[in-house]
Amino acid sequence: MLGISRSVAYYAKHRTVQEQDLIVLEHIRSVLERLPFYGYRKVCREIRAKYMQVTEKQVRRIMARAGLQAIFPGRNLSKARQEHKKYPYLLGGKRIRYPNQVWATDLTYIKLPSGHVYLMAIIDLYSRKVLNWIITNTLDAPIFANCLRETIEQFGSPAIFNTDQGCQFTSDCWTGVLHEYGIDISMDGKNRALDNIYVERLWRSLKYEDIYIKQYESVRELRDGVARYFRFYNTERFHQGLGYLTPEEMYRSFQVVDLAEQAA
Questions:
Q1: Which of 25, 38, 99, 193 could in theory staple to 42 by disulfide, Cβ–Cβ 3.0 to 4.6 A?
Q2: 93-130 per-position pLDDT tens digit
Q3: What whole-number distance in Å separates Cα of residue 171 and Cα of residue 21?
Q4: What is the pLDDT of residues 234-244, one digit of tens each?
Q5: What is the CATH number of the domain that holds 155?
Q6: In this structure, is residue 259 part of a structural domain?
Q7: Which of 59-63, 94-98, 221-225 is predicted most confidently?
Q8: 10 Å Cβ neighbour count for 234?
């Protein structure tokens, strides 16, 4: 009667491909904000479960165009040199009973917009306290050996120092400092990342609780941020494995008990 065709009367506007992609992109960002370690396959399943129907191919394409990717470990920094002496692992079955009994260290790789840097931290295994750390853009062993010497001069000598078999820690300048102070050298077995699990946990906490959230733009910003985080980690962050004490409280508690025994 009105001269209008059925197709016009029942027309519904369809989203363009670009509009559809923008909606999917918002869902991808929402998932990665909560689960930054998810790859495109898991992101796809999360979106299907909570938002809308998508395909893995679609999610992968949109993530690639937007420059989005899962958080994943950086390059392997634990490569040994054949000419360097390797030492046995001394911590198997050993009970760590007091501060400065065993220290450990490791290197991690941090990517910045301007390039990449390396972070080394020295921790006390009894208390998990971060004793010292350094950020550098080179892997020159003397830099790390100087940091080691500074830490010993400030906190005293541990009985054992544990590292992986990376060339920085098997170098003569590093092991020379340990020999000079009479410290026993312990090294993780080959392909035994769990031998240094406490340092690995420290890296995970630092990256997921600070670096990945703050997204530092420069080395200076990173140094300031890491300094703030390690202060928080040592003095405010409670550790379930320490009976909900902070590393600083755990490190000092042995000294308090020792003083009390002397007074008695």
A1: 38
A2: 889 999 999 999 999 989 888 888 999 999 999 999 99
A3: 52
A4: 999 888 888 88
A5: 3.30.420.10
A6: no
A7: 221-225
A8: 20
Backbone angles phi, psi at 186, to 5 degrees: -120, 140
Q: Considering the domain boundaries, does residue 77 fall inside one?
A: no
Is there a single domain that holds both residue 132 and residue 56? no
Half-sphere exposure of 101 (CA within 13 A, CB side): 14
DSSP letter assigned to residue 213: H
- Say what the pLDDT of residue 33 is: 75
Domain span including residue 34: 10-66
Torsion angle (degrees, nearest 10) of CA 45, 49, 53, 55: 0
pTM of the full structure: 0.67
How many domains does the chain contain in total? 2
- Select from 40, 66, 92 the last residue of a domain: 66
- 109 and 61 share a domain? no
